[in-house]
Design brief:
- This protein is 33% helix and 13% strand.
- A two-stranded antiparallel sheet has the order 1-4. A two-stranded antiparallel sheet has the order 2-3.
- The longest helix has 12 residues.
- The protein is elongated.
């Protein structure tokens, strides 16, 4: 996720991140990266991001990735979410 203040810089940042993953929202991407790819992405972004901009990289575990829901997917918000189980 990022918030880039200057339009030209914003376009460059979007182009970089688009090369690594799938756009979910305007400034939110989902990228499946190994450690080397993540470090390369961070390196490329550090050259573009300025102090007034913000960048958030969130690592998700496999079970969390499986629970990801987006509004783009027809089954993202099921009508019947199922029952909760207290353990």
């Amino acid at each position: 996720m990022y918030d880039v203040r200057e339009p030209k810089r914003l376009a460059r940042v979007a182009k970089i991140v688009k090369g690594y993953g799938e756009r979910i929202q305007l400034s939110i991407f989902c990228c499946f990266l190994n450690n080397r790819q993540r470090e390369r992405l961070k390196f490329e972004l550090k050259k573009e991001i300025e102090g007034e901009d913000s960048l958030i990289i969130v690592d998700l575990c496999n079970p969390c990735v499986k629970k990801l829901r987006t509004k783009n997917s027809p089954d993202a918000w099921p009508e019947d979410p199922g029952k909760f189980e207290i353990i």
